[in-house]
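Issue 218. Parser rejects a valid record. Input:
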Amino acid sequence: MHAPTQNASVIDLCNRLKRLPTAVVSDVLGAMGLLEQVLSSNMRAVGSTSAFAGPALCLSGSEGADPDALPNGSKPVFEIDRWVSPGCVAVIATGGHKQGAVIGGNVALAWHRRGCAGVVTDGGIRDAAECDEMGLPVFATFVGPMSNKGLWAFREIGIPVALPGQRGSMVTVTPGDIIHADGDGIVIIPASLAERVVPDAEILESMEAKIRADLVRGDDREAVYRRHDRFGHIKPA
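Output the parser choked on:
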């Protein structure tokens, strides 16, 4: 299996998303009725993290020793590299593992060289300084020095995964869903709705700019909110 190629439309949407706050995108998704699209704030940026957006490369694993090699002779931990495409975001569901790091510096370097735009995991990482120095943004629940060898292993590639959500429910991430992250956190945009969500978020952000200008001028906040219909352009999903 080779890495999927992104089309021009997805690349454009992701570039536009990087210029938008996740807070605005979250508000748009909420106005559409999609209330379970924000990942848990337990997944925080490791090091200095600039905003990133890209289609999800979904990966999962579980506790225990490495699985047997795949029919092509490679174990999943190595086969993953061949699925990494420029601009993708690696989303790693650990099944609740909180001991060893699920990736370290060598994995991060291999993925970064193949164009990975970021990593999101409900587990931990190590070699955080290396990730930061190479410019690979990472969101994880912890950083620690312990290897995952014999404790946890990658098992599946390119299948839907579930990660903890901010509202308490699990959030399903399907391959190709758009992952958008910044200093506030991570939102998941269903691939089928991305062409609606991004323009709606751009409109909302332009309204927010007008609201901020009114507030800077000293206008009453309640009056400002009354004259700007921030969500009227957004239709239910």
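Fixed in the parser; the record now loads. The chain has seven helices and 13 strands.
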